[in-house]
């Protein structure tokens, strides 16, 4: 009787799976070769040089082969993670929010600058542009950053809307992913104004490209409250034990003084601290006011 019961239970389990019953998903195998994607928010060669140092550090810590890649856009990092081609991503807050919505990406750490796990965004103008208020931006040429950049695209659009301007029609917008270059373009007068993170005018190469950049430009507006620190995220569907090992290594890296110079040169980061998804709810609130369609559920590609 007992044997008959066991056989019957096994048959029921098999029939349940065959008929569409819920079965626990299989654990992903450990992936020995991993890709760590970076956004091109400043000169790609500078990002790549320092990303390589971070990749070497994490490879030694974990025993995995981690290859850093500077991708063409913020969206490319999310797309790569959705298609399982990017395993770790260094992104902006908006990019993370979209990635979490699409593929379940997990925030592991976030950047600290000036002792705070948050940062400011600036709208800067050329001092000769006669722009002294947000209203004065109307009819001017404005440099936005990558469409998924919080500091250089989402936030300035939010500020313009709050001040009665339509960012799609009241300014002549141009998109420049490299925020160092946005600073230089404003300094040189190629555009009247632009949005950057704090303070991309001090990035390597900015002063060389436009000597006196800090005196030839001025800050028109800044974020209040500041933006949650840009996160470092990990692919949700990695092997769970491997994912934990990577998370531990990333958190350790955030306070390791040997890697601090690379973090500083990479994205002006002083250190990293643990992050959680709810840290980015303020960004979601702004998205709902500026571009709510960004938070519509998007099917994850198979």
Describe the structure in brief:
The protein has 302 residues and is an alpha/beta fold. It contains eleven helices and 13 strands.
Mind explaining what this structure looks like?
The chain is of the alpha/beta class and 302 residues long. Helix content is 40%, strand content 20%. The protein folds into 2 domains: 33-117 and 229-293, D-Maltodextrin-Binding Protein, domain 2 (3-Layer(aba) Sandwich), CATH 3.40.190; 121-225, D-Maltodextrin-Binding Protein, domain 2. It has 11 helices and 13 strands. A 6-stranded mixed sheet has the order 2-1-3-12-4-13, with helices on both faces. A 5-stranded mixed sheet has the order 8-7-9-6-10. A two-stranded antiparallel ribbon has the order 5-11. The longest helix is centred in the first third of the chain and has 19 residues, at 44-62. The protein is globular and about 60 Å long. The chain starts with a helix and ends in a 12-residue tail after the last helix.
């Amino acid at each position: 009787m007992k044997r008959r019961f066991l056989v019957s239970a096994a048959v029921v389990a098999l029939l349940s799976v065959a008929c569409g019953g819920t079965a626990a998903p299989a654990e992903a195998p450990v992936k020995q070769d991993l890709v760590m994607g970076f956004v091109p928010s400043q000169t790609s060669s500078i990002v790549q040089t320092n990303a390589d140092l971070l990749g070497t550090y994490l490879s030694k810590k974990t025993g995995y082969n981690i290859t850093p890649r500077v991708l063409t856009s913020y969206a490319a990092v999310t797309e790569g993670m959705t298609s399982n081609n990017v395993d770790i991503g260094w992104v902006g807050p908006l990019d993370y929010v979209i990635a979490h919505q699409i593929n379940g990406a997990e925030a592991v750490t976030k950047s600290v600058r000036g002792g705070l796990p948050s940062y400011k965004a600036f709208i800067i103008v050329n001092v000769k542009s006669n722009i002294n208020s947000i209203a004065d931006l109307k009819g001017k040429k404005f440099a936005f950053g990558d469409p998924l950049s919080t500091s250089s695209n989402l936030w300035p659009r939010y500020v313009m809307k709050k001040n009665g301007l339509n960012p799609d029609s009241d300014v002549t917008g141009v998109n420049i992913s490299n925020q160092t270059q946005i600073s230089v373009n404003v300094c040189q007068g190629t555009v009247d104004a632009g949005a950057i993170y704090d303070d991309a005018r001090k990035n390597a190469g900015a002063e060389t490209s436009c000597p006196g950049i800090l005196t030839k430009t001025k800050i028109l507006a800044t974020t209040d409250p500041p933006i949650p620190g840009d996160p470092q995220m990990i692919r949700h569907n990695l092997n769970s034990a491997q994912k934990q090992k990577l998370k531990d290594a990333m958190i350790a890296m955030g306070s390791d003084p040997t890697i601090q110079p690379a973090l500083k040169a990479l994205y002006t980061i002083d250190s990293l601290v643990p992050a959680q998804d709810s840290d980015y709810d303020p960004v979601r609130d702004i998205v709902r006011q500026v571009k709510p369609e960004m938070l519509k559920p998007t099917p994850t590609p198979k």
